[in-house]
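Aim 2 progress update. The chain analyzed this quarter is reproduced below.
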Amino acid sequence: MAMKIIFPVAGVGTRFLPATKEVPKEILPVLDKPLIQYAVEEAAASGLGDFIFITAPGKEALEKYFAPNAGLDEFLARHGKERLLDDVKRFYGKKITYIRQEQALGFGHAISLAEAVVGDEPFAISLPDDLILSERPVMTQMIEVYEKYRSPLIAFMKVPREEAPRYGIAAGPMLEERVFRIEQLVEKPALADAPSNYAVIGRYIMTPDIFPLLRRGRKGAGAEIQLTDAVVELMKKRQVLGYFFEGRRFDAGTTLGYIETLVHVALRRDDTRDFTRRLLRGLVRDEKL
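Predicted structure tokens:
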């Protein structure tokens, strides 16, 4: 199914300062690829090729990353590095739109800026901080569910109950093994107020009727315009679904989560797996001394 996909990448990346003072968090490397490329590759593998990046002042390096670099291309070609050349040219020619979020008014506000580009069609949203390793791309899984139900859809996973205040949390009846109808949705609730341990993860398929609700500009958690609040309003008009995806999610937007991401990505790759295993075994032995 062809649809546009939004990548909200306007955040400052304060958890990674001072590194992110000049380098956008989204192009910090996870081994030899920047974080943003994993999200873009997931979208491309799901048949999506119309990318919308919501950026901010200071994110010029991210905007340049997917642009052609004639000097580098010529250098790689001259030195016979065809594989590397293919890698850097993979996204040349893709339809990419950059929209600046001049003020940090929230996730919902960032999504609202794409309304004119998205138009009257369903669209996807991917948060690159959530790197998901899976046999089938998560967005592929979600598109299949959307095509069955034709309802807005949000990715979920179950978390330890004590972690609920860190997430958007939902509850509702199961419709099939991995799909449930959202009847309650709360952004970062107090532990006592969490309706479940079903946590929102950064993959969405939304319908264009979310935009009028975002345009109202109502501020929610963190005094920002939240997508969650608009979804709650949307639930009064139509069914909104949650989907427990197949795969493992890593929070690459935090320092500890970034370390975990690096280790697991290295363990999945043929060229780094054995070295990483030896390294981890050695570290375990050293810790016992």
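The longest helix spans residues 273-288. The chain has a mean pLDDT of 90. These observations will guide the mutagenesis experiments scheduled for the next reporting period.
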